[in-house]
């Protein structure tokens, strides 16, 4: 896999409140995006013209691992189990067989790129690692992203 995160991958998170850790401070992706040199700038700038991959060895997005799909999370003040909300299941049981099976099938569809756009939008809105950055390493041997804690 590539050891870079692209501007196009970051764009899906604009408007979601995704946080970026720059080792100096944490900023909201809506306030800044990483340019090709690894420097922060206002996202309303013309980053569409930048088609190169960007090295995020210093500036890393903070995303949820797939293991959080079946656990209760808090997002924008709301607590819920993502897989149940994603599939509109009316149950409060966490960690049951149906929940685990649905999460496994959802992850398979993400990996096979057969997930619907609306599901992908929901998962990125909740800051899930839809591009598997946590399992990919950069040139420095470190993951491309930082794992969000529950």
Task: Tell me about this structure.
Helix content is 23%, strand content 15%. About 15% of the residues have low confidence. The two termini are 27 Å apart. It has 150 residues and is α+β, with helices and mostly antiparallel strands. A 4-stranded mixed beta sheet has the order 2-1-5-8, with no helix packed on it. A two-stranded antiparallel ribbon has the order 3-4. A two-stranded antiparallel ribbon has the order 6-7. A hairpin with a 4-residue loop joins strand 1 and strand 2. It contains 4 helices and 8 strands; from the N terminus they run αβββββββαααβ.
What's this, in brief?
This protein has 150 residues and is an alpha+beta fold. It contains four helices and eight strands, in the order αβββββββαααβ.
Structural class category? alpha+beta
Element order: H for helix, E for strand:
HEEEEEEEHHHE
Uncertain stretches: 34-55
Q: Estimate the mean pLDDT confidence.
A: 75
Strand order of the largest sheet: 2-1-5-8
N-to-C terminal Cα separation, in Å? 27 Å
How would you sum up the global shape?
Answer: globular
* Rg calculated over all Cα atoms: 16 Å
Helix content: 10-25%
Number of strands: 8
Q: What proportion strand?
A: 5-15%
Q: How many helical stretches? A: 4
- How would you characterize the largest beta sheet? 4 strands, mixed
